[in-house]
């Protein structure tokens, strides 16, 4: 199953720190395999791989894991050292607390703190007024810490809520994949909330598995906003790649062992609908299939369930601002 495509908003936002420090972002985009001209159309989306390459190039070019958004640099290797500092903790709670204390050794670093309130744990972000006009660093760090915690205990931490101390941004629809849970904006704090029981779980990883994890992380954590175990991810997996044989909502609910009414309610709570999930998956499948030259546009159109290629062309241009042929040409 292809991973969710990445909107160009995140590409533009990721470059803001490099622009701030006078780096040649045009050259960085080309090295990542992203045509700079694509940034002119806000509807365009790209596959996760070039986005991951861009994040890695930004770290290398700036020697900064905060990609130019912090008051001072977080040199490459800082995240890895933090992971080494927490990998031998007995429980997730101790690991998160130690990781928080690690970054507090750097006075100008964004602070991630763990707070406990009854049965709920709050992973709170404090930006202390840093340069982050698109909330890119904030979103990135929350995703990274959530995914890191899930990896440490060997299961996805189900989020109960996500609160943000700023108004709902223009790319707010993307938050459903970044944080698949009820979201509140203009909140008193920016934080992820989950059941406290996760904190008592033992770490299932060690230095050997950490070495493999660090080969691609945290860059790949940012380009994979959903790991497949959320409700949205489960539905995407059940739908599969052949749109011509997709189950309907009732059949999907049956496979998930719930009633259609319960499925609709859970989707409403995550700010999604069954039709939206199908539309987004069809879009991501189109991007995924267009990267494979062995498939003709006619074959892709049929696999996506369009009655004729012209309907596919119209839909793809609505999704990305380009025709399928122009998009495929831009990838080479």
From TrEMBL:
The answer to whether keyword Amino-acid biosynthesis applies is no
Q: Which UniProt keywords apply?
A: DNA-binding, Transcription, Transcription regulation
Instruction: State the Gene3D superfamilies in the record.
Output: Homeodomain-like (1.10.10.60)
Q: Signal peptide position in this chain?
A: none
Q: Single GO cellular component annotation?
A: cytosol
Q: Which domain of life is it from?
A: Bacteria
Molecular-function annotations in GO: DNA-binding transcription factor activity; transcription cis-regulatory region binding
Q: Which residues form the HTH araC/xylS-type domain?
A: 229-330
Entry protein name: AraC-type DNA-binding protein
Q: Which organism is it from?
A: Atopomonas hussainii
């Amino acid at each position: 199953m292809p991973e969710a495509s990445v909107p160009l908003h995140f590409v533009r936002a990721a470059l803001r720190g490099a622009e701030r420090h006078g780096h040649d972002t045009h050259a960085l985009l080309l090295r990542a395999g992203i045509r700079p001209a694509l940034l002119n159309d806000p509807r365009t989306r790209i596959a996760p791989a070039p986005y991951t390459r861009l994040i890695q190039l930004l770290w290398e070019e700036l020697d900064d894991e905060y990609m130019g958004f912090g008051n001072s640099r977080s040199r490459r290797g800082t995240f890895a050292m933090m992971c080494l500092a927490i990998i031998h903790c007995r429980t997730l709670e101790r690991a998160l607390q130690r990781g928080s204390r690690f970054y507090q050794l750097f006075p100008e670093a964004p602070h991630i703190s763990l707070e406990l309130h009854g049965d709920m744990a709050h992973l709170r972000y404090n930006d202390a007024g840093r340069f982050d006009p698109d909330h890119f660093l904030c979103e990135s760090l929350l995703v990274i810490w959530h995914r890191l915690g899930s990896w440490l205990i060997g299961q996805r931490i189900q989020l109960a809520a996500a609160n943000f101390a700023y108004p709902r941004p223009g790319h707010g629809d993307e938050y459903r994949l970044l944080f698949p849970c009820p979201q509140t904006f203009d909140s008193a704090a920016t934080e992820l909330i989950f059941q406290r029981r996760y904190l008592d779980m033992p770490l299932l990883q060690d230095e050997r598995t950490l070495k493999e994890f660090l080969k691609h992380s945290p860059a790949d954590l940012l380009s994979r906003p959903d790991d497949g175990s959320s409700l949205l991810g489960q539905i995407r997996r059940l739908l599969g790649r052949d749109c011509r044989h997709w189950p309907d909502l009732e059949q999907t609910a049956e496979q998930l062992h719930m009633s259609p009414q319960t499925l609709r309610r859970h989707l409403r709570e995550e700010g999604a609908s069954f039709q939206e999930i199908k539309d987004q998956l069809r879009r991501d499948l189109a991007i995924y299939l267009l990267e494979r030259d062995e498939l003709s546009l006619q074959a892709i159109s049929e696999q996506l369930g369009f009655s004729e290629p012209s309907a596919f062309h119209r839909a793809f241009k609505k999704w990305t601002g380009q025709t399928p042929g122009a998009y495929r040409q831009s990838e080479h």
